[in-house]
Structures are given as C-alpha cells and as structure tokens.
Design goal:
single chain; about 575 residues; mainly beta; four-stranded antiparallel β-sheet; 4 helices
Length: about 575
C-alpha cells in the first residue's frame, strides 16, 4: 500500500495525473481506462493497481473470453456508461478485424452492442486502432478508427453519431463502395488511437509507403466530426476549412470531385492549395500524446523513401522535413518543433510507437520530456519545449543533433525490427519498459527482446535473458505495466509474459489464445482492479489471401479477461 501511495504522490507532484485522464473511484484507484495507454501521457502504466502484484501473479485465472471472427490487435478501453434498460455499467470497448466495434460488460464479457464498420479494401491493418471514450455534451461517445474512417458512436447503444473519412470514404461519385480503394489504388488507413483536447479529435493517417498516396495529421470537431484542420506532412502546409464548411472526407492528394468538396475549395481555403502530388510519404501510424496544460500534442511520423529517378513519384532526397520525425503541434495545428535522427533513410527506419510524456531530472530541476522508440532500436528523450537546457541546443539550430537529453540503442533494428510499439513508463521507479521486434528472422529475433532503461539517464537497468522462442520471443505489440509487473506479448504465438519490474525475472507465461488463433499478441494489456484485458492474434492483410499473414489476420480470436482471486468479481473456483 505504501508503494501505491508513494507512486501517486510523485505523479501528482510532477503534474502527470491530469484531470479526466485517469478517473478514480472512492478508494483512489482508476475504475476506467478511457483512452489508449490509460491517459494522454500514454505511459501505459496503472500506478493504482493493488490486486495484481508479484506475489499474486501466479494465481491468474481466466475470468471470461469474448470470441470474434478475426484478430484483435488494439487495446481495450473501459468506462462506466449508462446503458438503456440496464443503468450504469462498466463496459469494455474494442475493435476486431472481423469488421466490428464491440461493447461488452467488464463483469462477465456479455455483449451489449456491436457496430459494423465499413470494409477497407487495400488496408494492411484495417482494425488496428484502439477505442477512446469521451464525454461530449453530457453523453459518452466511443471515438474509434477502422479502415480509413473515424467514427463517433453512442457509448450506451453503439448508434453512429458521426463519421469522418481520411480519404474518399472508399466510395465512387454515386456513393458506391469500394470506389478507388484497393491494394493498387487508395490505401489510406487510420491506425491512430485518437486523442481529444480543446474540443478537437486528433489522429494521423498512413498509406504504408504506397507511392500513389500520402498521409497526414487531422483535427476534427468532437461534436460534429467536421474537419477543423489538416497538416500535410510532405509539404508542411496547414489546411483550414472555413467554419461554415462541413467537410467529412479529406486527404492531401485526391481531387475535389473525388473527395466531394465544393468547387474551388483548394484555392479559397487557407493553406489548402499545397502541392497535392502523392509520393508515399507523410504517413503517421503513431497516436498523439497530449499535454493539456501546454495545449500541445506530440506524435511521430513514418519514414519516406526518396529517389533520384526523375520518373519516380518518390520525392528527391533529402526527405521532406516532417517525415520520420518526432513532432509537436499546438491544438491549432501549428508546428511547435520537430526533430529527426537522419535526413536520408531508404531502409524504413520509421517511428510507429506512441510518444510517452514524463519528467526527468536535469541537474537539480525537473524537465517535462517526450520519449519514443524508433525501428533503428533507439529510444530517444527530448524536452517538450524543443530545447536541451543542459547543452542549449534548440530544435531549429543549424545542427540539432544534440537536442535529445539521451538516446539509447538496444538492438540493431531494421524494417521489421527495433522499437515498433509503445513503451510503458513508471515514474516512481524511474523506469521505461519496452519490447523490440524480431527483425527479418522471426524465429531467430534480435536479442534481448525486453528492455528496462533508467528514466533519467537511459542506462540499461535489465534486459530479458530467455533464449527459447516462446520464452524470449520478440514482440510487435506495446508493453504495459503496473507497480512491480511488466506485461509483454509475443510475435510468434498468442503467448503472454509477465516480468518482475525490478530485475526482469519472468514470473508468469501462458498461451492464452484460442486454438484457431495464429500469430502472437499485439494488443497492449490493460489492468484494472485485478483484472487483465488483452486481445489475441497478429496478422497483415495483403493482395494475396493465401499468404500466411493474411490467413492469420482472419482467424477467430478473443478478447481475454484474466484475474486474480482477490479481485472483485473474479471466479473463486
């Protein structure tokens, strides 16, 4: 109990317990997880958990499982909402690649509603985003992306309130699907789990480096879903529709007619007349972290292949200035600062993980920082104000390479290696925990695969020691944690591992997926009140339905709830 109290005290002291981000019940513990990774700081750490501990983890048992028609790779959201005819209920919201958003009861996994989202031909990861629950005008809304569309749904009923398409909506001029969407056409997809601040919904859009498209960063009105602004990552232009516009389809490269925009829209709206040539760049598959006090968002962008061939649609080197970068914006869409580790990269060393917001000691003072990993195997920490107060280096200096407070590389990395997913941060213990992806040989991954670094210096505290494929497997999924424990998925099988946070000892491991499930666990585990929630399955959609990754993406899988006997509602038998 003292450990939990000290963690809360430190978090309050450094200002990271944001009102509305980690709701608490009367006992001072979170009873909800309304957004990805628990809060807008995206620390993927629940400091209030008191039931699931190193001394009880061996007692974990299944509480329930909810089976769907395909894999579940996003993390669940949990919120108390009013359900018609049932009153106030704690519900779990998640996306399955079977084409549905689900709401089930936290207590027993019983389905409350399901919502069918539009198919997205040509999307590699059509159901990868996590749900977010937001209170809007006194009503709870589930805001979630699937394919290229972001939906706002009534949290109690699943009724659609609004939708926004980051592209054409996969419909032709007559409104018929799939329009231009295919693996050889429009490949826009929203992998971001949204953030909401200042009445706006923020997210990125990706095109998986397809040269016929380009990604970008969006802000929508949380009430109506209309486009407030769009930042074109390739050109650095900020497109701002008029307040009277009701734009619900937009991207940076289709025509006015294809997007259903008013004639002359590009020429008359501020910043919308930018270069609209595609080049496969500008992609964002990270999700935003939000600093509400600064009214700032932090996000990371994907890589950008370049080419010297005049006939290539790829841009000439070096990369456009906002690709493969750590970025900070105001809530109005203006760039606060940007930083990237290299100016030319044709090896796909992208940023995909979600930035973590925390504080570190710099000399005798605390500094607000943002940290995020890269496919090159390096975790980087930068001041949230874009200046290194120790060295004086600023983000806009002629040579900003010295901007980070620290950078630590733990594996060589590569196109499918390095740090792909979100890390967990325990500020009381002064640790950041994350996994690394396998590289090109999934059966012989780059090792070690689980890492704990000192939050203030970046020094390696521990790394996992297992060498067998299932014990020490790499992971494509995020890492999450509670006091004393670190939760890690697997790239090979639906295998969950739990490590002791202090020294990296493996305390618990089990295959938890269904017999039909192929692939690993890419969902980040959420722990509330002694119950652990995690999805199973890993896969990639492709033009070849016979490919192993495509087959794996369509196999029946479950959202699984595990609990310890002391947890409220956990079966005793």
């Amino acid at each position: 109990m003292r450990r939990t109290s000290s963690a809360v005290a430190l978090l309050v002291a450094v200002g990271l317990v944001a009102v509305g981000c980690v709701p608490m019940d009367g006992r001072g513990r979170p009873s909800e997880s309304r957004t990805y990774a628990y809060s807008y700081a995206r620390q993927f750490f629940n400091p209030f958990e008191r039931y699931l501990r190193p001394d009880t983890v061996g007692e974990l048992r299944e509480r329930w499982r909810f089976r769907t028609g395909a894999i579940i790779t996003g993390s669940p959201a949990v919120a108390w909402v009013r359900v018609p005819g049932q009153g106030l209920r704690r519900l779990v919201f998640f996306v399955s690649w079977d084409g549905h958003v689900y709401a089930v009861r936290f207590a027993d996994g019983a389905e409350v509603w399901r919502f069918a989202w539009d198919p997205q031909p040509g999307a590699n990861f059509p159901g990868a985003a996590s749900a977010h629950v937001e209170r809007v005008d006194g009503r709870d809304r589930v805001i979630v992306a699937a394919g290229q569309t972001v939906y706002s749904l009534d949290a109690g009923t699943g009724r659609e309130v609004w939708r926004f398409a980051a592209g054409t909506g996969c419909r032709d001029a007559a409104g018929n699907p799939p329009g231009l969407c295919s693996f050889t056409g429009e490949r826009n997809e929203v992998l971001s789990s949204v953030g909401v601040g200042g009445g706006r919904v923020f997210f990125g859009m990706d095109v998986n480096e397809f040269p016929g498209g380009k990604g970008g960063l969006y802000a929508l009105d949380v009430r109506t879903g209309r486009l407030v602004w769009y930042f074109d990552v390739m050109t650095g232009s900020l497109c701002r529709p008029f307040r009277t516009d009701r734009i619900h389809r937009y991207d940076g490269y289709h025509t006015e007619a294809e997007l259903g925009l008013p004639p002359g829209f590009f020429a008359t709206r501020p910043g919308c007349d930018h270069d609209r040539r595609p080049g496969g760049c500008g992609g964002i598959w990270s999700s935003p972290a939000l600093d509400l006090r600064r009214r700032a968002l932090f996000i990371a962008s994907s890589n950008c292949y370049t080419s010297d061939d005049p006939a290539s649609p790829r841009p000439r080197p070096p990369m456009p200035p906002y690709d493969e970068a750590i970025l900070s914006f105001t809530f109005d869409g203006h760039v606060r600062w940007r930083w990237r580790p290299r100016e030319i990269d044709n090896e796909d060393l992208a940023y995909g993980g979600v930035p973590n917001l925390f504080r570190i000691r710099v000399g005798r003072h605390w500094r607000d920082v943002v940290g995020v990993g890269n496919k090159d195997g390096t975790y980087t920490v930068i001041d949230r104000d874009g200046v290194n107060v120790r060295s004086g280096v600023r983000w806009d200096d002629p040579d900003p390479s010295g901007l980070p407070y620290w950078r630590t590389q733990v594996v060589p990395g590569g196109a499918i290696g390095g740090i792909l997913a979100t890390a967990a941060v325990d500020e009381a213990a002064r640790r950041v925990y994350f996994t690394t992806a396998p590289g090109f040989d999934v059966l012989n991954p780059q090792r070690p695969t689980v890492h704990a670094l000192d939050l203030d210096t970046g020094a390696v505290v521990w790394q996992n020691r297992e060498t067998d494929p299932l014990g020490g497997d790499a992971s494509f999924g995020p890492t999450s944690a509670v006091p004393g424990l670190v939760f890690v998925g697997s790239a090979l099988a639906p295998h969950l591992r739990i490590y002791r946070a202090s020294d990296g000892e493996l305390l618990w491991q089990r295959i938890i997926g269904d017999p039909e499930t192929l692939g690993g666990i890419s969902s980040g585990a959420v722990v509330l009140d002694g119950t652990l929630l995690v999805g199973s399955g890993t896969g990639v959609r492709s033009p070849n339905p016979q490919s192993p990754s495509d087959i794996a993406s369509r196999r029946p899988s479950s959202l699984i709830a595990l609990c310890v006997p002391s947890a409220p509602g956990c079966p005793s038998g």
